[in-house]
Amino acid sequence: MADEDDRAEIIVGAIALVVSCVALLLTTLQVLQTYFASATGYARCGPKVMGDWAKSTRRILRPYELRFEVQFETPVIFLAHPNNNRGPVPDEPIWYIDGTPKSRNETRSLLPDEQKQNDDKLSRKKRIQDNERASWVVLLAALQQMEHDSEQWQSRFYTARPGNTKPQKFAERTLAVAVQKKVKSWDTMPAAMTKPYATTTMCHLIELASVLGLHWREFSRCENRYRAEGNGFILTGSVVNELGLVFTFQKTARTLFEEERVIPNEAVKQFCFGVVPTIFGEPEDETEDVFRYPFDVPQSLAAIKLGSSREVADTLTVMGCNTNTVDYLLKDHQKMGHLFPVAFEILGMLSRTLHGHGSGFRMLPNPTTYRWDKKSFSLWKLLEAFEDRLEQDDNITNTDQIQKIKRSLEHISKARGPELPLRTELTVPLMDTLHDALDSTDKYLTGGPREFFVLGILRSHFHVLLRHLNDAKERENFDALNSLGLEDKQGRLMEIYFDTIRKEVVKKTPQRMPTLYRPQTGNVVMPVPHTADSTTGPAGFQGGHASADSDSITSLVRKQSGFTEKNREDQLNDIWCSFVFRMLCWLLLHDFHKEDIQLPKSELLGSRLPVYIV
């Protein structure tokens, strides 16, 4: 009996031990589950959401708080020079997106081939958008694809008709997209956010949109509504409580990064905001106050604003145009173009050349509020008409500068080739020839003692042009352009320019150079040349406004013009012809998307307002 009782006790004890162990195990599992459940957000930082960025997600035990903290890495995206070694995140490496396998591994992005496979699937059958993945993962893949595809196209384009200069290597460019990693904690995530987000700034986001070929359809800071579309992408933005401006990037259709790719030049960053660096500014000006945030009314022609009618009017004021000329931009129902808007004429005459030697890229963000539509005219026919007038006009003396322009025209014609169907096709040699012509013209227009008269011709040209476009008694010539066929428009426009505009511009340009003021900024402020219809005051006034106080004037400089009465008209003709020739060459060498127009936002140039991409 005793043995049976002992066996019973052993069995009962064993059962109790098993039950206790099971209970202990369950309790342990429950405690562990509680600990792991405290790792809030871990499931939202997985590969389905973050792609390869999920590999950096980890739980950090906080024993004193009896919980796990979730930490993850997300990108900080910005645009900079490829040789820049300073980023917004201290002590973190900077990865530049160049489309290579190394760059794709560093930025943990999709391969371009994988992206193309997704495009093929999208074109073959309808698919529901995958909303699980963070949109900044798609953005990084798109940027890698842009660099990969455009580099391949550039190689094919150059090989087809090689030039004397090879395209710039990636490190030789002045603009690239850069990425840094930033460690974040889910503890600091706002309650309204359910996915990790990438970080950038307002100015860099606007620049990214332009680089990828998106055009802003809505940009309302009053209502906090933002939407950009283009090249198969949509970018939308709104305000999220406790965080700020949040944007979503989506791929909706097939994308193309070839000849439509934006020129990788740092000046593109200004074009995105309607600000244009000009031939009268030096590259080092971009590091000075002229481009610092916020970009206010320009004080010189080193940079101009074209993003709205008001800004174009401000630019004309800086040129020294009188009140009547400026009012044409500010009044309703005024005519602001002939074959194309006058804003593009300002752009072509003044903008710095952004094209790179040996490159096939020529696309730029449109800095004007006008649409660039080339269907109703031909720039090549305009250039041919300009060449004909230069040869036939008896009032144009064959000076050294006119001979240089004629030689440039000969080189351009030779680069175009003899075959008529191909004479509108751009090649590397042709684009480099246009670039060389611009460089030669810029050297003349920005050289030495003629600077005052260059600006005088510029001011008079737009004064006369806008008056002839809008004055009821003088606009007949331009109104008649609308009734002409495509073959005749270009020749007629050049006829008006040479026979009417040029003569009046040369006549109204000042006879002598007044004293110039040199403010502390170092930029020479040009007084308005005195003419019969200039609304200027005494010396020291510009555009009807008083000059700077005497405290801000460091010196008075009297420059010799180098002109005599004998050659005055010839030199003024040289300047005017150089401006028109430069405008045509610049517009041929650069291009804008027909759907791209500028929405006013120049005050955001350089803005470091944080924005987030989910």
TrEMBL record:
Keywords annotated in UniProt: Membrane, Transmembrane, Transmembrane helix
Stretches for region Disordered: 102-126
TM helices/strands, residue ranges: 12-32
Domain of life: Eukaryota
Protein name in UniProt: Modin
Originating organism: Microdochium trichocladiopsis
